[in-house]
Design goal:
Blueprint (H helix, E strand, L loop, with lengths): L8 H19 L6 H8 L3 H7 L3 H24 L5 H17 L2 H9 L6 H23 L11 H18 L8 H14 L20 H5 L6
Helix pairs in contact: 1-2, 1-4, 1-6, 4-5, 4-6, 4-7, 5-9, 7-8
Amino acid sequence: MPRGRSASYDDQRELILAQAAQLFARSGYPATSMNQVAEACGLSKATLYHYYKDKSSLLISIAETHVSKLAALVAEEEASTHTDEQRLRRFIYRIVEEYAGAQDAHRVLTDDVRFLEEADRERVLDKEREVVAGFARAVSALRPGAPSDDLAKPLTMLLFGMINWMFTWMKPNGRLDHAAIAPIVADLFLGGIGAVKMPEVTKTKTAAPRSAQARKATTKSG
């Protein structure tokens, strides 16, 4: 009778993925070896191969796990009963929150998917396209002429550029954390620079972002 998996098997796999994502993000996928991953995890190379058969399977798991969470986020919000503006604001808030907790995995998704075999790469990219399409629908819903809006995707990519770039300059212990910056991104994108107000700064997670007008009544500018 085959031996069953230990109770810690899934936890160990997640630890391996987190360590591998960190190494890939720092050094790049091609420059990272399975020996380095094993060492970072405190495992022998033989034990590492018990969980993942090769480096490519690590890359596939990192990318697919991350992009699947993003796609699930989009599907959940699209099924909600929020207004069009609330939905886009929640998209922005939740994507920033997800990125904040998975910056290494997101860098791997952005930089290293090109090293996958074509079938694996296309499967990951198809999920990524689902995420972009969901955001584009939310953007289009707020514009005249929806749903046939030729600018929806370009505007969506500009929005993603704003969000992605944020992680290159934000300081982890700076005055604004990710929960505070998400509504700023939403206000800037939806209302222009004049709509942006300094949020009340906390270092705890906040509820879903409110509009600039709603926050104006309860916060003071810094």
